[in-house]
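hey so i finaly got around to running the thing on FMN-dependent oxidoreductase (Nitrilotriacetate monooxygenase family) from Pseudoduganella umbonata. pasting the sequence first so u can double check i didnt mess up the copy paste, my clipboard has been acting weird all day
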Amino acid sequence: MSQPNMVIGMHLGNGYGSQPGAWRMPWVDPRNYASFDAKVRHAQAAERGKLHFVFLPDGPGHVGDIENEAPHFNLDVMLTLAAVARGTGRIGLVATGSTTFNEPYNLARQFKALDIMSHGRAGWNAVTSSGEDVAANYGRRLPSSPERYGRAHEAIQLVQALWGSWGQDAWVHDQASGQFAKGKRIAPVNLGGKFVASRGPLYIPPSEQGQPVIFHAGGSPNALELAGRFASVVIGVAFTIDDARAQRAAFRDAAARAGRHPDEIKFVAGLMTTIAGDRRSALDRRIALTERTFPDRLAYLQQMLGVRLDPARLDQPLSPDQLAAARPSPRDPRSAHALNIAREGWSLRDILAHGVIDYHPVIVGPAVEAADHMQEWFESGAVDGFWVSPDIYDDGIDAFVDGVIPILQERGLFHEDYAGSTLRDHLGVPAQYGVDHRLR
Ligand SMILES: Cc1cc2nc3c(=O)[nH]c(=O)nc-3n(C[C@H](O)[C@H](O)[C@H](O)COP(=O)(O)O)c2cc1C
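ok and heres what it spat out for the 3d tokens, dont ask me to read them lol
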């Protein structure tokens, strides 16, 4: 029997959860946004379930509806992960760091220091950033895609070169002889490209996993080439098995084109969860969380289904005439699923509570439904795993860990324990120190 190898990461955002309204639930401390203790607690809950990593997206731009909702991001992802590193022992620690708005030397230094601090558990989600709102915070306009990706290719190579600039055997710290390090084994990188440059070296020794693991998130052709060359894990979005399978195949092809083995790149798709004992209780939980958004979402649901829906009749299902006339919008990949839910006879309020307009497929129901979804996608070759966004971190991570994980383990899909101590061990990412010399 081969080892079960479904990869599962946990999304950690603003301290509350992925759903609007999470911060207002009576059992949630409304100050979690600014509480590093809360972030540590949430990561500890994910680690209890043996999840491979926590993932902290970043890209400080628009804060959105600040009158009603918390910003989506962490105060500072690296400081949060530093706290989490000290409060956990095994789980991988992955954060986004923009190649467009950071100097490679700073990225190299911060992620490697985190890797040392966490004993080899750091991962860098290297993205180019895509919003003018983010660029404005750096006093800039967003560069074109070729410029952003040109810089990203150089930046990742340079960061990896800096990571390798301290020889693996250089640090002797021999008190008897008085030799601290072998100076000849620590060399400048002296790399200069069209976009970035650094002399180096970076004065940080290897971590337990050598250096951090590279992640990427994005789906454009340029993103595909970047991930194909450098990424071990792609954080993805897909609403159907067919779409996920096509994306996974495209990333695997890109890795092969770069001279790597396709299995060296793993595609993990997003999954949002509201886990409760039964469908009705789960829907009621979602309604309590998100009902404030329903007027806007109902207007959008009309476009997805191509029929007029009456906001005064939220308690009613679609009429037989409406169902006969409804057509899923080809412009939104979520529309066919929304129509299927409507055909099951749910009220308009319950259709919306199923999360048919969320950022990822959503499980609203008992744990076994999440396990079934994950098994089906995994066994269809659509994904290597998932990154999970619970509705409310304070109890939604526990619901996933106590409900879904044991089912996946029982079915032989998910490991019983971590394979080793580093993120590379957990994911089966091959050893690498410095740049990857195989890249074409
Ligand atoms: C699942 C997912 C997660 C992402 N996370 C981030 C993030 O944390 N920070 C960020 O700046 N961009 C993030 N992005 C945006 C991508 O990096 C990329 O900029 C975007 O997909 C636009 O692609 P393009 O620049 O290749 O056109 C994410 C994208 C996806 C699909």
